[in-house]
Design brief:
alpha/beta, Rossmann fold, 17% strand
């Protein structure tokens, strides 16, 4: 089996952790049973660039149960759980190219190893596979029927490609499913980000000033959890509607150049580049802690920080102290990469249950419908979103009402009036 992982001997530990995560993924388990019978992905080679975690392992098992040949690499150099990678290779026969802490050169070698398998469907978390295909591996395009994308950042990139007329095959924006961004981005990112920051620093959040840069679904979640731990939350935004929402939710809202001098913790969740820049680092108080929970580390201007850093040193796992020219220290967590995966374990499996259920169902949808789709980014079909929500409610033992015939008629009528 072709692979590149850290240690095959970790496989048994990984298997147990994958099983533990699977116990909180009832929707995906129901889909697995269906896929085992129907084989909706029979004959498909599926190239996936995802965070190699216990939850992702459960998704890969479902895809394989559906008939797909799955080849997996990491979507972030620090997000791989090496025991999970080993278990997927040893126990599930899935080719994995992922090592926690891999350098940039290895990261792209692993991307290309997945592409060497000539996938028919791509499954991305940040659109790196798609970008590599369109820039360096155009020879593969004729064999690709479609793809899926998991993240806000990736969808932004893909929509830009579609707008420029360069996107070469259809892609479903799994991120935009209501059962994904309302729960994964808000509740998953909120909890796992604070988990990562606390594991990395062991600092008290209560009573601190916690600056959240960006108030999208991820920012809402981080702000909510920081507030729940007793922090005084400050939100920075460029969108007036989101800024107004943050005010109405009870948070202080101000420009980052003002918040920089106040904050004890900073966390970027915007999907954009250089949100915290050199001037912001210089304005921070001594001892400020800076993290990112957006997809790429470019949210922090680390080159700009390096220019005003006279010395730096790792002071804890996942914590680097930067002593700046002005004599103040700032602490960057997890190399500026996703702190919830660099220093913690990512989203809880019960949240990823819905996100990965969408991934599995959208992969099958893409196989069945690719011939009728244009080269653009599609939202998740409503029937898939509704099915995932219904399955999750059933798994939680929650029942809801149904419309009566009279109510259905009223909602569909324009003559009944009030």
């Amino acid at each position: 089996m072709k692979c590149d992982i850290a240690d095959h001997a970790l496989a048994e530990k990984g298997r147990l952790r994958i099983e533990w995560a699977g116990r909180s993924m009832p929707v995906l388990n129901l889909i697995r049973k269906r896929f085992e019978q129907e084989k909706p992905l029979e004959g498909v080679t599926l190239g996936a660039c995802l965070h190699v975690t216990t939850e992702t392992a459960n998704l890969c098992q479902v895809l394989k149960a559906g008939g797909a040949e799955v080849v997996l690499c990491a979507s972030n150099p620090l997000s791989t759980q090496d025991d999970v990678a080993a278990s997927l290779v040893e126990h599930d026969g899935i080719s994995v190219y992922a090592i926690k802490g891999e350098d940039t050169e290895t990261y792209y070698q692993h991307l290309n190893a997945v592409l060497d398998a000539a996938p028919n469907i791509t499954m991305d978390d940040g659109a790196d596979l798609v970008s590599q295909i369109h820039s360096e591996r155009k020879d593969l395009i004729s064999g690709i029927i479609g793809g899926t994308e998991e993240t806000t950042t990736g969808v932004i990139r893909l929509r830009a490609m579609a707008a420029d007329g360069v996107l070469a095959y259809p892609i479903v924006a799994v991120n935009d499913a209501m059962t994904k961004h309302l729960f994964d981005n808000r509740y998953g990112t909120g909890q796992s980000t604070l988990d990562g920051i606390i594991r990395a620093t062991n600092r008290l959040v209560a009573g601190s000033y916690f600056v959240v840069c960006g108030y999208g679904w991820c920012g809402r979640g981080v702000a909510m959890r920081a507030n729940g731990l007793g922090a005084k939350v400050i939100v920075t935004e460029v969108d007036p509607l989101r800024a107004l929402e943050a005010v109405m939710d009870g948070y202080q809202v101000m420009p980052l150049n003002q918040a920089a001098a106040i904050g004890d913790f900073f966390c970027t969740v915007t999907g954009d580049i250089h949100v915290i820049r050199q001037e912001h680092f210089l304005a921070m108080k001594d001892g400020a802690i800076v993290a990112n929970s957006g997809h790429f580390n470019v949210e922090l201007d680390l080159d700009g920080l390096a220019e005003v850093t006279k010395k730096s040193r790792p002071i804890r796992d996942f914590v680097v102290e930067h002593t700046m020219d002005n004599g103040k220290n700032v602490y960057v967590l997890g190399e500026g990469r996703l702190i919830n995966l660099a220093a913690a374990e990512g989203h809880p499996s019960s949240v990823m249950d819905m996100s990965f259920a969408n991934q599995a169902l959208c992969a099958a949808y893409m196989k069945d419908n690719a011939a009728d789709l244009n080269k653009q980014v599609y939202v998740v079909p409503d029937f898939i979103d509704a099915e995932v929500a219904q399955l999750k409610l059933a798994a939680l033992g929650v029942e809801i009402d149904e419309l009566t015939e009279e109510q259905e008629m009223y909602l569909n009528s324009w003559t009944m009036g009030t």
